[in-house]
Amino acid sequence: MKARPGKHGFDDYGPELVLEADACVIGAGAGGSAAALALAEAGLRVVLVEEGRHFVPSDFKPESSHALTQLYQGRGARSVRGNVVMLLPGGRGVGGSTLINSAICFRTPPEVLAQWRDEFGCEQLTDERCEAWFDRLWTSLGVTVNPVAVQRNNNLIFRDGVEAMGLDGAFLARSAPGCVGCGICQYGCPSGGKASTDRTLLVEALATDNLGIYADCRATGVETSGERVVAVTGTTMDPVTQKPAGTFRVEAAHFVLSGGPIGSPIFLLTNGLADSTHCGQHLVVHPTAPVLARFEQEIRPWTGVTQGYYVDRWQDGFLLQTYTVTPDQYFMTLPTGVGAETLHIMKDLKHLASAGALVHDEDSEGRVRMTPAGPDLYYHFGDGDKKRLIEGLRLCAEVYFAAGAQEVYPGRVGAPVLREPGDIASALPHDVPASHLFMYASHPMGTCRMGADPAKSVIDPEGRVWGWSNLRVADASVFPTSLGVNPQITTMAMGLMVGESIASEAS
């Protein structure tokens, strides 16, 4: 049957769901939502299928157990392994990772776009064309800098240290115009103040009456004819048990895969739509590590904008960014073992501030592959990136001492508490083993890189998978390199590009 516009979920489906549309988008995260918007605005009838469910702000709870089971891929336990082990979270639901991210908005650095054009042949990504996409997204997402009243002390104390040192710092632009500073972005936004794609881009797309969003649908297979994909198949998922309950099939003239940098390469490889020469390779993740600091005054780090302030050292290969999590998350992520030291830190948690360094992946890389046990994610953290991360952590500690910190806890397992700036270098030496750094990653990219040469890429510069005339990819997997900044805006821009490319071809 022809797809119906509007929102649909598990309760609307029978044992077998069969749909027809002009275009089918697989995955409702940043890239998929943007692609669906561009297609719907061009007048194409679009089906957007998403494994997770629809959410409204009242569904979100400040509970780790609820968030991990409902909003996160792999229940929040997804990680990369190699010479380091890092959690690599990803969102699940209509809105994808925009449901759980901190809403940070950076335009793609011009140097990165120039590299993509010069080294990978992505000539369509002109500065002018990208700026038009960025401007459109700034408006659609309501991107703004949140007022000081909701930044609160965790961000303000870091700003004090940055200004005392004369560094290049600023409050972060965020797609959260209604932020009230409740500090639980990673659990979903209960106030509705964050402009996740389900509340912005998809609302605009639904207003065209050309989009049907079918939640609780896990795409697993394809049907092909010659060099064309003719249908996507999969299972409908019970949102309560999260188990398959029925089947679905979508026939369309055009298909857009937006399963994310983990899901998209696995889908292509398991369905024989690409080979592993580059598909699943070149994984980059923006490794990060934390620094905590204790102050005499109360900070109450679990309140305020979750990530509100940053220091721009992009040219040096890293950024500093503040962050907040809930008290139970602080307990689980402290770089100390279970015992007196951890309990001492938790006792004074209201006096602690937290920030960290984010690295650009200049000599680090990994890969994604599917095994009988599930996705296997490998990542090797390079020595150059380790040095840059150490430099970032050192600078972060200096900022806290400049702000008046009494003690600083560096992101190195087993490191001593720092009580003065002279302690920093010895606690964070450049030769520390990578496995001794308490690391985290949240920005997977690059596993279906785009390029003009099929021998060096998975998709062409318009997003089309090499060898398939009507299959494209639109998510952060298409990035030829790491960005060095938070990727949601670039991901959405790639979605708009892919949607516009299909619309131009279909017209």
Ordered list of secondary-structure elements with their pairings:
Blueprint: E1 6-8, E2 16-20, E3 23-26, H1 30-41, E4 46-49, H2 64-70, E5 79-82, E6 86-87, H3 110-120, H4 127-141, E7 144-145, H5 148-165, E8 169-171, E9 173-174, H6 201-206, E10 211-214, E11 217-225, E12 228-237, E13 244-251, E14 254-257, H7 260-270, E15 288-294, E16 309-313, E17 318-322, H8 327-333, H9 340-347, E18 352-359, E19 365-371, E20 374-380, H10 383-402, E21 407-409, H11 424-427, E22 471-473, H12 488-506
Helix pairs in contact: 1-12, 4-12, 5-10
Please tell me about this protein's structure:
The two termini are 23 Å apart. The mean pLDDT is 95. A hairpin with a 3-residue loop joins strand 5 and strand 6 (86-87). The radius of gyration is 22 Å and the shape is globular. The chain has helices at 30-41, 64-70, 110-120, 127-141, 148-165, 201-206, 260-270, 327-333, 340-347, 383-402, 424-427, 488-506; strands at residues 6-8, 16-20, 23-26, 46-49, 79-82, 86-87, 144-145, 169-171, 173-174, 211-214, 217-225, 228-237, 244-251, 254-257, 288-294, 309-313, 318-322, 352-359, 365-371, 374-380, 407-409, 471-473. It has 507 residues and is an alpha/beta fold. The protein has 12 helices and 22 strands. The strands form 5 sheets. It has a 6-stranded parallel β-sheet with strand order 1-10-4-3-14-22, covered by helices on one side.
